Amino acid sequence: MSREKERKRKILELLKEKERTPKELADIFKVSLMTIYRDIKELEKEGLIERKHGTISLKEDESSLQHCVICSKDIDGRFNVILFLNEGKKVHACCPHCGLMAFRKLSDKVESIIMKDFVSCNPVNAFTSWYVVGADISPCCSPSAFAFSDRYIAEKFSKGFGGKVLDFEDALEEIHRLMSLGTRIKLSL
Ligand SMILES: [Zn+2]
Ligand SMILES: [Zn+2]
User: Fold this and answer.
1) What is the pLDDT of residues 107-139, one digit of tens each?
2) Do 180 and 129 fall into the same domain?
3) Which domain, by its residues, includes 29?
4) Ligand 1 is a single-atom ion; what residues have CB below 5 A from it?
5) 32 and 76: one domain?
6) Cα 61 to Cα 77: distance, rounded to the nearest angstrom
7) Cα–Cα distance between 12 and 7 in angstroms, integer?
8) What is the arithmetic mean of pLDDT over 80-103?
């Protein structure tokens, strides 16, 4: 684990006990305020902490109170997606399926997207993740989409459960294609 990573992990642990100021954190780790601010900024971007009146605290787990911007389902922390929009706004989606749909709608406003890796549950950058779209199982919305930080794991998953392994751009297209197929079938009934 890199020093930065290790420090950020410890910061989260410290914040579990109580709120801290950046100065306190810098003193504890014996690093410059600038370094601490950089850690804080990154943790903030990952949606893990928040700043209020000069103190840093762990972000309340707001995912349980959130609804999906696409299907308005309650958000389950295991699959949730956060889309960070410009002007510091963000919206939540229940799973990569809705996350990708939300990006199609909001793309020009989206600055970054954090998804959960299906295996590790770690937050990952959606733009560089791999997706299995249209697998036989769909724990949330269908056609299902699963996010993986590792292409090899995505391929193993799709060998077991079907679906296509795609990068972000192609996953967007594939979800859209499958959704419009669904609509067409419905209309022809
Ligand atoms: Zn949804
Ligand atoms: Zn969903």
Assistant:
1) 999 999 999 999 999 999 999 999 999 999 989
2) yes
3) 3-58
4) 68, 70-71, 73, 94, 98
5) no
6) 9
7) 9
8) 93
